[in-house]
Inverse folding.
């Protein structure tokens, strides 16, 4: 039991050492141009993140095999970690300062003693190099290379059949929704009903636009699925009623806004703003 607790404690310390990223450490600035050659479209494969996975696998492999007393594979992972660490250190010249080859070699040497305590202790210095880079760059890299640029997406407005930028299309959806809610608030139910048809047509077109990225059946309707259908049906029922119920009307407006608009914005909007700001800065 004591041995198990020691191993778990060392593994936790190792994890914290490798990923000591706190909110105050995070910086959101555009990654260097040299990194682009390791991501599509300049590279067929996302080579940079592949290197991260390789190093992580070998680092973890050391501790997994130390725990299992598979010392032959401990040595193999230790050597491969140093090899991949050196390779990664040469990929982006601007980030050379994040790497400490000596720390990697010292960790490998400690691992080869087959003493998990010594390996855990030696991992701290190496982990700080990883943590420093992650704290400075990880959010920026994920933003630039793993999220789409929404402002580059074109949408054909189903109402006037004109092609517009995604941002302008979002404003059209918002304007259409206001046509529904403002008219309802004024008691202009016929106008609200007409506006609802326009709003629904524009909103549900997102099934096509979102499916460009949300390609599988279980995710393509994240924001335009059953909840949206339920909300639009509820809104139509109220506007067609002899005496619309304001409580039911606003409940369905809230359902649509929360499960559709808000959830989409929480996932995508911040990244889109950051990328657009970087690209505007590059144009100056």
């Amino acid at each position: 039991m004591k041995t198990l607790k020691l191993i778990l404690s060392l593994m936790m310390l190792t994890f914290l050492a490798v990923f000591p990223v706190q909110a105050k450490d995070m910086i959101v600035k555009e990654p260097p141009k040299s990194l682009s050659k390791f991501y599509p479209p300049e590279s067929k494969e996302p080579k940079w993140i592949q290197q991260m996975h390789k190093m992580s696998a070998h680092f973890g492999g050391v501790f997994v095999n130390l725990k299992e007393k598979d010392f032959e594979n401990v040595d193999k992972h230790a050597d491969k970690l140093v090899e991949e660490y050196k390779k990664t250190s040469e990929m982006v010249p601007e980030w050379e300062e994040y790497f400490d080859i000596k720390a990697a070699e010292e960790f490998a040497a400690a691992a080869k003693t087959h003493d998990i305590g010594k390996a855990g202790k030696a991992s701290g210095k190496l982990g700080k190099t990883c943590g420093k880079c992650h704290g400075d760059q990880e959010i920026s890299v994920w933003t630039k290379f793993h999220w789409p640029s929404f402002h580059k997406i074109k949408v054909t407005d189903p109402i006037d059949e004109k092609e517009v930028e995604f941002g302008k299309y979002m404003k059209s959806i918002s304007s259409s929704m206001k046509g529904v809610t403002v008219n309802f608030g004024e008691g202009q139910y016929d106008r609200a009903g007409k506006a609802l048809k326009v709003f629904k047509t524009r909103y549900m077109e997102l099934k096509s636009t979102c499916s460009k990225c949300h390609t599988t059946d279980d995710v393509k309707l994240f924001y335009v699925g059953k909840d949206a259908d339920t909300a639009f049906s509820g809104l139509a029922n109220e506007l067609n009623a002899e005496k619309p119920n304001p409580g039911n009307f606003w409940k369905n407006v809230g359902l649509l806004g929360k499960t559709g608009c808000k959830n989409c914005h929480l996932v995508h909007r911040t990244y889109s703003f950051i990328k657009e700001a970087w690209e505007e800065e590059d144009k100056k």
